[in-house]
Amino acid sequence: MSKIQAKDRIKKLREAIDDYRYQYHVLDKLDISDAALDSLKHELYQLEQQYPDLITPDSPTQRVGGAPLEKFKKITHARPMLSMEDVFTREEFIAWVSRIQKLSPSSTFATSSTFFCMPKQDGLAVSLVYEDGMLKSAATRGDGKVGEDVTQNVRTIESVPLKLRGLQGRRGMPRRVEVRGEIYFPVKAFEKMNRELMKKGEPVFANPRNTAAGSIRQLDPTVTASRGLDFVAWDLDADLGQKTIEEEWALLREMGFRPIPESHLFHRLSEIETHWKWLQDKREKLGYWVDGMVVRVNENDAFTKLGVVGKTPRGLVAWKFPAEEATTRVKEIQWTVGRTGALTPVAVVEPTWVGGTTVQHASLHNLDEIERLDVRVGDTVILFKAGDIIPKIKQVIVKLRRAGSQKTKPPTACPVCGSTVERRKGEVAMYCTNPRCFVQDRENILHAARAFGIDGLGPQTVASLLEHGRISSAADLFILKPDELQDLEGFADLSSKKLVDEIQSHKKITLPKFILALGIDDVGEQTALDLAQHFLTIEKVMRAPVENFLEVEGIGGVVARSVREYFDEEHHQNLVKRYRDNGVVVLPFEGVKKKTGIAGKTFVITGTLETIGRDDAKERIRTAGGKASGSVSKKTDFVVAGENPGSKLDEAKRLGVVVLSEAEFLAMIR
Questions:
Q1: Helices (DSSP H) in 327-413: which residue ranges?
Q2: Would you name the residues annotated as active-site residues?
Q3: Homologous superfamily of 325-431
Q4: Which residues, including other chains, have CB under 8 Å from residue 658's CB and lie 6 or more apart?
Q5: What is the pTM of this model?
Q6: pLDDT of 348-392, one tens digit each?
């Protein structure tokens, strides 16, 4: 290839690679595979090595280059990089809105203001300066006036364009353009880096923001390049005629940047609050760490005129999410008994606000966890909460431990029935040795009621029925009479009849649900379905030897022995007989409906279905040979969207999963 031909090829390769960079980092799609893109980059590199005088600073091959720095130089910002005010409650946020509406010099803004809302990413703020469309410098915030020159390191981040695109020929395009944004660690990249460090036996990183900041401040840019950092833009400092931040972000996309995703314009406070709550619920699935939502006055003129107080602009605020961690004191450690007889420790703590709720209990999992944390009554502890689960104890602040505190000892007797407890070989949990322990009976009955689909039967009702001798197992529910309930607290004629009618309406049950209702250790919904598909009747399941269970796809030795041992016990055989004697009809398994085309397909249901219950829909999917999953992934075939669908619908659209309406779903499973 001649030099003239190479020059033309290099130009085309650079343009194509930049287009693919734009597709991937801005549009979140890529028309070719990663391997194909790597091949194009390799061809470009080889041509540039052959003709080094054709290498330019904006070439994709120049993202990583240059010798390690001895130290960082300083860069003075053209305008200060300011911080922002934080608010933590709805009341504080409304007070901010009222304040800026009163201060606004525009009466129009006060009555018809709009707000631009964006996730507050947990990253490192940087300023990028472009001259004549080319990246000239990148600097950290520093003290707001002077930052560190991290240009070499920022050039290694693929989502930062080395050359602005789309606007070079625009009339009135300024020579200097400044873009501000956030360098952050994507969740997958951070986790991948830690996994690699663990394999090498090296310490892992705990804080993604600090790690991102440390990665940018590496004197060797090759280290930064290896970390997998990303960049999103949130501010454009150049006059291109934009009048709102919303218009600014459209310009940023045109230039080749990806503004912060999940950002929207709102007119009403109720919409802003709804979006804040939505972001909080979705935060675990965003792919990046976020600790709140930034709300900014959309109109640039109004934003500027509101001015600055200290180091914070009046026209924007960070509405933080409720703290995910808080400190409190342990008042007591209680042990609860579950359906299988396993004892679970729970810390009773002084009421404290964490994760948006007041909590008084924290999970301790098991004795091993207590010993690992060395948590004791009276200790000051750090609670953390992820999502909607019960908070956990993260750490004991030993410096605040009172003198004379005693180590937590495991119980020697069941806290409910007083029977001895044991720690089974190979297991962490401790168990009550009494198979007829009251709490185990209660939890088994509640478990069975859920499998049968019986509503209105809560823990207190079941406890009362057991204490008064009305029932001794879940099978006895089906012979209850209204007059047997009327002398129990909380029951009258109408409520007694209503509960009995509800129970009687669920006497017919499918084989998979009946197997699930029995409460066999290690047997969940999918295993119950697998057993039903293989054996077709409950009698065959009860008689099968261990080796027959091992023939069932997905069942191993532990589950096989658990099922066989369950039916070897006489009182479990009697339980199945009592169900039958009391009028329960276990429907034989009809097999997979081959004509539906559902066999082997994975479904996820989101939102409320009008004509069919969620559990019923899942059951019909499974009995037709499909799989009902709780989360959307690349392996999902269909998402069924009812009314008020959640974030699963958004994830389905992002991944290109087929979305079905309720009517389409019902037509498919008929």
A1: 367-373
A2: 120
A3: Nucleic acid-binding proteins (2.40.50.140)
A4: 637, 638, 639
A5: 0.49
A6: 998 887 766 678 888 888 888 899 999 999 999 988 875 445 788
